Amino acid sequence: MELDLSPKLPQKAYGGNGGAYYAWCPKELPMLREGNIGAAKLALQKNGLGLPRYSDSAKVAYVLQGSGVAGIVLPEQEEKVLPIKEGDAIALPFGVVTWWYNKEDTELVVLFLGDTSKAHKAGSFTDFFLTGSNGIFTGFSTEFVSRAWDLDESVVKTLVGKQSGNGIVKLDAGFKMPEPKDEHRHGMALNCLEAPLDVDIKNGGRVVVLNTKNLPLVGEVGLGADLVRLDGSAMCSPGFSCDSALQVTYIVRGSGRVQVVGVDGKRVLETTIKAGNLFIVPRFFVVSKIGDPDGMEWFSIITTPNPIFTHLAGRTSAWKALSPEVLQASFNVAPDVEQQFRSKRTADAIFFPPPN
């Protein structure tokens, strides 16, 4: 059976006045299960709090919109309270406890992409909440909670039953949450909109790559990531991951066209992609994108912390590395055709501006 690679939107999993949590379902996007990838979004309204939780999957979080506060507790460490804003990428290894809070009028939206190879359900994140109507306290008897935390049973009943919210709650306007500290961002978050560019092509596009050098925690997560901004009508060179990694792409803004070519030269995907879409490129498949006139921006994770890509156009492409005789024989063309093929796209670039 052929895999459905078409881009998909997420479905609402739960929510209320404080916000909502959305997830991509493996039934809708089978490559999630095949690739052991999870994808979800948290959208918090003003004064919305994402209750403390840990997950069965290592993830990379990316702030799509707004600003707010993230609380992060790494195993056996003290809480870090980070100010977060649009463009921030945060690596979340196994065992990390997080909470998320929005104190601003603008909706705070955070994307989560991660590895579900050790998760309860392939292709889906399972969060374990520390509190709330589905928190771990509710599963233990009053006796166990009382003895574990040395509390009177009356206090235990209050702790277990007082919070009726599930996953996301809305706090009173006057409630004071911990103040974030800029120094807590060090080593925990990288703003992809402000970071030095790894690629910058005039009228083509720009790339910021997350790896173990600029965000060491991605090594613990086991994922790499990048933010790509493609200029209007520009093209991203056809290429593939040459280290067997999957590429999971979320369209942040704009729109464009994408083609994916797989085994036996078969085009397995040709469609228009737009903001909010998620799609997955299988291992070794070749992908290329062309932005619409207003351009396109996407955030991707790659299932290795230091990914390597091979591009098939441009000066450093695999084609340019092959000898002329091999190209002539492979294409079954005359030397002048091979020379014309080789002489084009001589720049060291992965983005190509629109034709004049």
From TrEMBL:
Keyword Disulfide bond: yes
Name used for this protein in its record: Cupin type-1 domain-containing protein
Domain Cupin type-1 residue range list: 3-157, 195-339
Record family assignment: Belongs to the 11S seed storage protein (globulins) family.
Claim: Disulfide bond is one of the keywords in the record: yes
Annotated organism of origin: Escallonia herrerae
Pfam families for this protein: Cupin_1
GO function term, MF aspect, one: nutrient reservoir activity
Gene3D superfamilies (alphabetical): Jelly Rolls
Keywords, comma-separated and alphabetical: Disulfide bond, Seed storage protein, Storage protein
Top-rank lineage group of the source organism: Eukaryota
